[in-house]
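Progress report, Aim 2. The chain analyzed during this reporting quarter is listed below.
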Amino acid sequence: GTYDGVLAGWDTVEHVREQDKNDIELKLLRRNDGRYLKLSFAMSAHEGSVRCLDIASAGASPSNSGDSGKKVKKRQRNQDDGPEAPPEPGALLSGGFDETINVFNLQKHCQAGELKTPNDLGSPLCCSFAPPCSSSSGPPTHALIGTTSGKIVLYKKRDWSVQHVLAGHDEGGVQCLAVHPTGKMALTGGRDGKVCLWDLMKGRLAFVYKIPSRSKIRKETVNDIVWCDDGTRYAFCYGSKITARDVASGEDLLDVEMPSRVNQIAFIGGPEGMFLAAGCDDGGLPVLEVGQLEEEEDANTRRAIMAIEPVDKIVAGDDRLKCIRSVEGGSGFLVVTANSGGIVSLMDLEGAARMMLSGPDGNDEESESKDSGSDDESSESDIDSDEEVEAAVEILESVRLGSGARITDISVWSYGENEVIDDIEDEEEEQEEEEEIEEVEEEDEPPARNTDKGKKFNNSPPQIELDAAAVEKARKLV
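Predicted structure tokens for the chain:
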């Protein structure tokens, strides 16, 4: 979403219609094509700026398909006979400064409806489906909209009727919103310095945490709040600080201050959220390890790394990282970022995580155990360390929206099965296994010698071994 009210979407798959069939097959964009993102749509959605976006998974209910009962039964029989179809994105929810909420069907690429926020509640600032798209609880049943009035509107997705209006923030507005993967509770952050936990099953406020303010006049603004995929951790950022907490114990797993303002954060590294990536105002992208400090931990242990260095300017300008969202599947460290210059990038932060998990000097335990006896080896290690620094982040692809439109928010829909990366990893594992098997066979293969045994088994065809007397008798016969 942009300041001009334009919505643009990119897809990682291309829709291919099979010959003599009406079925549409989804094929992932291959890595050897050099493309990861393909522009899917671009349209004007709001008269003002786009404030918030969220994508829901497509429901499997027959009522949403628009087909007759015979077609639905036939499709169900085909699905039962064949493999299960992969999930697809369903609805796109966008809220704008013009106090409208638009709903789009991403399967048919058309607008499905338009809503107006209730009277005296202001324009929407944040939105989320419940359960969210990253949840395994199925398609969403409700949608939450945070408004500038500080109230949260709970909609029923079936007919988009207002189920409840939750009041807990001041008139500053609800700045960010995150629904738990179960869809039973949600966290919100406002401009009043409050982090609120909502019980969506009962429709009431469950807990409020007030952030200590550094100024007596101005309260802290919570810029973003996120859950990890399994719902055991959550994190929020305000000003230049990032805080991550454990749900069960309520203890802080991370509480750090960055050099500049933190705009958005995202959990990476698996469902439990082992790492946090942040998009900052100075253009930097730090990756932080989430976890409590151990008593026997070395003082030189690396707990954070700057995957992308900040811009060496007083004002970052177009290089400011406005948005960052995690991508489910693949290596587990994929993120999508957007800067103020209208550039959307798909990045892999696995290299940064590996550097943090290595030793204090940036080398793993095996490399530390090896002794470097010459200057050549030390120079080679320096080259390797430089390569590791360069591999902290791998930018898979970057695309520019128009001539550089200013992006306000992004939303990512994904699922865990990534055929392209899995195929590449499987091929690499198979090659490594074949090489190991060949080495083992070369080591275990005994030298050829004459024995009294009749046969020798190996990878070559079976050979008959004879003693000296039998060989002389065979020569005489020949």
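The CA atoms of residues 264 and 335 lie 12 Å apart. Residues 419-444 form the longest helix (26 residues). These observations will guide the mutagenesis work planned for the next reporting period.
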